[in-house]
Structures are given as C-alpha cells and as structure tokens.
Amino acid sequence: LWEETGVLPVRRLASAGGALAPALDLKRDAGTAALATALRHGGLALDAGVLVWAGRWLTPPFAPLRFDNRFFLLHWPAERAVQPSVVPGELAAGEWIAPKAALAQWRAGEVLAAPPILHLLTVLGEDGPEGGLQRLRDPAEADLGPFRRIEFRPGVVMVPLLTPTLPPATHTNAYLLGTGPAVLVDPGSPFPAEQEKLHAAVAAAAQRLGRKLKAIWLTHHHPDHLGGATAAARAFRVPIAAHSTTAERARQQGVAVTATLADRSLHELGPGFRVRVVHTPGHARGHLAFHVEGDGTLLCGDLLSALSTIVIDPPEGSMGDYLASLERARALAPRFLFPAHGPVLRNGERVLAQLLSHRRSREVRVLAAWRQGVRDPAAIVSLAYDADEVPALLQPVAARQVVAHLDHLREQGQI
After folding, report:
1. Sequential DSSP letters for 320-380
2. Is 288:257 a contact under the CB 8 Å cutoff?
3. What 3-state DSSP class applies to 173?
4. 402: which residues sit within 8 A by CB, 6+ positions away?
5. Using CA atoms, how far apart are residues 398 and 172, in angstroms rounded to an integer?
C-alpha cells in the first residue's frame, strides 16, 4: 500500500502514547530496512488489523507465471491529512476512480481487466464495499461451469485447455467470442475430461450471459487447435468453419469443416460486436486471425505465442508468408493480442513490430552464415542463434527455422 499509494496504516505503540500515528516522512522507494527503522524511531507499528479480507484468487495453469492473491479492502477517511496518490515507479500509471467509471473504461476498450479485477469492480459498483463483501469473499458467480471466467476484454472469454502441444506450452486457449450469438475458436483438446469441462463452460455462458453458440471457428488445422472440434460440434449441433485450405487439412484428420471463413469477411456476434476474418498464412497456409473491429483486439492463433517462438516448418510453413502476415496484423494497429498459447499481450502493434525485427535480424545472420560457405541447416543454427538460445531438444526445430529462412532468401534472389 505504502509503495504504490503512499498509504501506510500504522498505530502508535502503547509505550508511545497509543494515539493514531501521523504519516511518515519517508520516500516510498527507501526500502524495507529504512521503513523498519523509521517505524522503530517513531514508536510505530504496522496495523494490518484495519484490512478487511475480500477474497482469494489463483491464476489458472495456462501460463508459466501464476499468482496466489489475497485481496483486501481498506477504509481510508477523506479527512485524513495524507490521501492516496499514485507516483511513477512501482506502478506504470494509475488513478483513483469509482468502480462504475472503471467498468465503463473497460467496456469502451480503453483498458484490460484481469478476472479478479473485473469481479471486484462489478461487485463494488453494484453493492458497494460493505453490501458486496460476501460476494467478494466467495467469487463463485465469476465461474462459467468448472472454469473461472477469464474475460480481459468484453466478449472475449479465454478457456485454457490441456492439449498435447509443443513445450514450453501445456495448454491451448479456446475462446468464446461474441456478446450475443457466439463462436468457439480452437477447441483443441482431444482429452474427454477437458472437452466435458469446456462444454459445461459454453453451456453456462449461454444460460448466464446469453451467448448461445452458433459455430466453431478454427484458426488452422494443427491437432492442438482442432482436437475437440468434432466433439463440440456434436454437443451443440453447430457447424465447423475454417479457411478453405484448412478444411482439406482437417478432413485428412477426420474433422468435417462444413463452412468457409473468407478473408476480410465480417461477422456480427452481438450488438456492435463485429469480427473481421484476416488470412494470416505462414505458420500454416490456411491460418486465420480474428479482429474485433473498434476494440483493438486481435485473436491471433499461432501467429505468435506469449511463451515461445512460433515454428515455421516448410513446406506447410512459409517464412515469406509469415513475415507478410505479421505486417498485415501490425497494420491493423491492435492494442491487445490474444494468442493460442499463454496470456494476453498488451501494446499489440509494438509487440508485432518487435517480432518482425527479431525474425529479420535472424535472417541476416542466416544469410551471413551462408555467405561464409556453411550449407547444412543444423550447422547454420550454431551461427544464427546465440549459444544459450536453443536447448539440445529444440535443435531440430531451430534447423527447420533455418530452412524456412533459406527458402525465403531464395525467393528474394539473395542466395
């Protein structure tokens, strides 16, 4: 509290008179030792007794970093001499705002809201800190079936599913997209237990949020993206839609795609919720991304990952197509990227620009190795990658990336 807002709940020790202590004149970044010294010299003690417990939240296991958070309420009278203030440092930015106003910013597309924050703001806006205390302590209403509702942006519900995907990822994010009629993007788990939980979440979203499923959409044909598509289509009696190229690849895996998603086609998934289909080949020839127009949200499938590098494996993968797809996605100026693996990424346009720069710098190193006379892709890996970049297990994958870069250099006439 003190570090982030300047508020320090303290009390005077009995030996110092017992009265409410004044604020400490101490820089917030002074550190724990300095704070302890200041408290001791002032005859003060931290007073956690004024904090009111307001719930516990645990991050689902879809990202390598997880958090076990306790939330608390603190009543801080307006007449206190020291009032909360946000300064640069611990926080990138911040403001004091009424819960309803914060929710309005979220709905307008100005901010992201992690699941605990969305729930806290909703309850505080509806019932206030005292009337809503029990709802804060038992957040079961924030669940969709067996999953906690993860809705960083309105109409974009993330459902992480355990899949046989490539490490370090362990899950593939399915998305329930839309605020009225909804589509289920990439139900990728082949495991019956995961499918059962997903179906329960989709049914709960229809019942509680009015988001009735009308179709299943696939970003592409890889097994960790369509492993549960047939089961979901049967459970909800809806069609499976994808790019025409993906449809053929899916058919070879026993998945019947019965509707086509055309590049640039626009789909209304609730009042004012318009989704544009964007063809983004490179990782796969039929790869699609989905752009929520007016919101700054891009569901990007395997165009990028929040956990690792996306594999471009010829002949299905094309580095030239992939770089062009990154450029096309960047031109949409997305603010929020929702990948198939890992958490949502902010500053989407900047992330895409950095990814483009990284891939192009890698290609420069591949070309330099070729000009030195090195022809074996596995040998080029040691020159194009830093020593600690590629563990032994992923050396063959890195070699395939080199092949993709060499193909692109040939297309450009550079080798």
Report:
1. HHHHHHHHHHHHT--SEEEESSSS-BSSHHHHHHHHHHHHHHHHHHHHHHHHTT---HHHH
2. no
3. strand
4. 366, 377, 378, 380, 381, 384
5. 22
Q: Are 275 and 177 in contact (CB under 8 A)?
A: yes
Q: Is the peptide bond before 168 cis (omega within 30 degrees of 0)?
A: yes
- Give the Cα separation of 31 and 29 in Å (integer): 5
Residue 318 · residue 281 · CB < 8 Å: yes
Judged against a pLDDT cut of 60, whether residue 310 lies above it is answered with: yes
Spatial CA neighbour of 110 closest among 93, 85, 129: 93
Order the strands of the 288-292 sheet from edge to edge: 266-268, 274-279, 288-292, 297-301, 336-339
C-alpha to C-alpha distance for 84 and 77, rounded to whole angstroms: 11
pLDDT tens digits along 368-393: 999 999 999 999 999 999 988 888 88
> 45 forms bridges with which residues in the sheet?
11
Q: At 409, is the secondary structure helix, strand, or coil? A: helix
Rounded-to-integer distance, Cα 327 and Cα 297, Å: 16
Report helix, strand or coil for 190.
coil
CA-wise closest residue to 2 among 96, 89, 84, 97: 84
Q: Which residue carries 């752009």 as its tokens? A: 291
pTM for the full predicted model: 0.88
Amino acid residing at 246: T
CA atoms of 201 and 111, how far apart (whole Å) = 25
Of all residues in the chain, the percent with pLDDT exceeding 70 is: 96
pLDDT at 20: 47
Count of H-run helices and E-run strands, the chain: 13, 18
What the block records as the tokens of 81 is 């001499």
pLDDT tier at 93, thresholds 50, 70, 90: confident
Buried b (16+ CB within 10 A) or exposed e, 242-271: bbebbbebbeeeebebeeebeeeeebebbe
> What is 21-54 written as a DSSP string?
PPPP---TTS-HHHHHHHHHHTTEEE-GGGEEEE
- Cα(352)–Cα(80) distance, rounded to whole angstroms? 46
